[in-house]
Design brief:
Layout (H helix, E strand, L loop, with lengths): L21 H6 L1 H12 L2 E6 L2 E7 L1 H14 E2 L1 H10 L11 H12 L4 H6 L1 H14 L6 E2 H17 L8 H16 L11 H20 L14 H11 L9 H5 L1 H5 L4 H14 L1 H14 L7 H6 L2 H12 L6 E5 L3 E3 L2 E3 L4 E5 L47 H18 E5 L8 E2 L5 E2 L4 E7 L3 H16 L13
Parallel strand pairs: 2-8
Antiparallel strand pairs: 1-2, 3-5, 4-12, 5-8, 6-7, 9-12, 10-11
The chain binds protoporphyrin IX containing FE.
Length: 479
Amino acid sequence: MTQAITSPAPPAAPGLPLVGDAFAMAGNVGRFFTEQYLRLGPVFRVQALQRRFTVLAGPEANLFVTRQGTTYLRSREFWMDFDWEMGAGRSLLSMDGAEHARMRKAQKTGYSRSFALERLDDVIGITRGEVAAWPLDEPVPGLYALQRIVTDQLGTIAAGISPRDYLDDIIVYVRTLLAARVTRQRPAVLLRTPRVRRARERIEELYAKVRAAHERAPDERPDADADLVDDLLALHHEDPQFLPETDLMPAVLGPFIAGLDTVASTCAFMLYALLKHPDLLERMTAEADASFTDATLTPDSLRRLDVTHRVALETLRMYPIAPAITRTVSNTFEFAGYTIPAGEQVIVATTVPHHLERHFPEPGRFDIERYTPARQEHRQPGVFAPFGAGPHVCLGAGFAEVAIAATMTTIVREAELALDPPDYVLKISPAPTPSPDDRFRFRVVRRRRSSAERDGRLRSTRSGQAGRQRHRPARQAAP
Ligand code: HEM
């Protein structure tokens, strides 16, 4: 039942004529929300791209979404244009309530930390192959280099297919799709340009390949693990009404999409931070050298990484790639003294606490000591949310942590890198999600391993893959 509105409207953030706050938000959305939170408190309104949003911010907002998000907030409207563009009626991100929980459960194993840990050899082997191809002493585009690595890793592991021949198409199509249909920072007409249409056709080709590769059950495929796609197809066959053919494409292509603007951007930010802090780079390199045995890292040695893990946490705090989540209010609720009515569009500025002095002293300083057992600043309730909050909190967070640690530790072990130019200062590009801008480049100063050593390791990695454990698909799992 709709409740009467009983409180005044929340304060409005200062807007610019015509375009509302869109300009201010586009620059650095995290900083904009933090400034408004400090000025106006945990609820305020912004105007962006002809739409009005109520922003909820601070630890209290994150705790509210975590505890009550299912009852009061709906995801559907924010993601439905993405689904439509993919020809789907709905997807994990746009589902709510019981059907969301069911769909999420089906994808849990394929996106889990343990699934990634069992395939560390792939993560490391792919990274090493790409690093070996970086030219010596020439500028390498930072974000692109990491997008190549991460997309190959995720596709290979979670969908059983290396997307190497499709990487540029994936980058062009997915980034345009997100910026045009989800964050709406770019005009939708971009999706109809010949370049993007061609990329889309290639994505459909990749989808057909992935489907064909999974036509036979995993037990009937030699040398293949059951993966996320097998789990999705099993659900489709078991209940085609719940997961119809039309909705399979965004789900099956998830592994090729999920890492591009998340893990890759985080790794690029992390690389920038390391190259700006030579002391940290030295400590992380020493840790990497001490942790590899023979060809690879074992799951145990990855878990024991300490400096690497803390550099990753500080990167996720300072440079969150998802500073906020957007929702529709499904039931009227009270928050911080205001009534937020059903039907309202809300932005939950999940990472505002990352930049607040009271939770992270000197928030502008890259400081990995925050995460020592004595300080544990990120453990305060509601303050650390790089992976979002509530029912849609990142399903691949564990997978992502493994991929970030294994990728970055392999890179620093393989090559000595430097910023190019050395005095480059980070500029954040906002679309579709925050990432280092195109001018972020590095060069390989020297290779830290001989090519014989590298080749030897690559060979042994490949033989390691053949012997790895098979994953049991969800439909065969014990109840
Ligand atoms: C640094 C890396 C990553 C970050 C910061 C990140 C962040 C997020 C955030 C904020 C959301 C919530 C979106 C919303 O509520 O609207 C999300 C959802 C999701 N993420 Fe990630 N993500 C990362 C990597 C990954 C990876 C590697 C995977 C897959 C292996 C993945 C799979 C997913 C899935 C499937 C969802 C949808 C969950 C649902 O709707 O229930 N993410 N992620």
